[in-house]
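Much of what follows relies on a compact textual record of a protein's fold. Each token is a code from a learned vocabulary of local backbone shapes. The record below shows the convention in full.
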Amino acid sequence: MPLDHIVSILPELNKAFFETLYMVGISLTVSIIVGLPLGILLFVTDRGLFLEQILVKNVVGFIVNLVRSVPFIILLVALIPFTNWLVGTTIGPTAASVALSVAAIPFFARVVETSIREIDKGVIEAAIAVGATPWMIIREVLLPEARPGIIQGATLTLISLIAYSAMAGIVGGGGVGDLAIRYGYYRYDNTIMFTTIIVLVLLVQVIQLAGDIFSKIVDKR
């Protein structure tokens, strides 16, 4: 790769990199705020659990599966009217973060549900036996026991969001993906294309390493 060419695109690359961080940061935050309680709800309302509500479980599960089944690029386009109503624009990283959040919420919710299902049922039964309330069971048993899996799930969600954010560049979402498409693909500039790929690969590696370390730190089992 010509070094002088890479240097010349550094300002654009720097801007695109921080746009990507901005998009995935918002989306991950929203997915945790909404997806965490949604995942807990999917678990505790299941058959045989302490807040059994099969209708709620089935309805929420159907909605989660419905959103997850839609390819992201289709979801991105389908949400354009909603995005425009919510943030007042359909282009840029803020607009892209809306579709990213919608895609990430059900994904993270299922990860949370799966992590909680790995908890030994005996631990939950013991908490019920001593008279713990549902809120106490969730706060003192489910969340602490599932914490390593939830952190790993958040890491996986974040990495998926980076991939999705690159796809958002197709509709002018900004970020590294947008830079790769506008300068690399449309202008047949392989230098920019390979540079953006390297940046994304390194970002994913750092996130995965940090997630693995943090998960081990909080794992008290």
The CA atoms of residues 80 and 90 lie 6 Å apart.
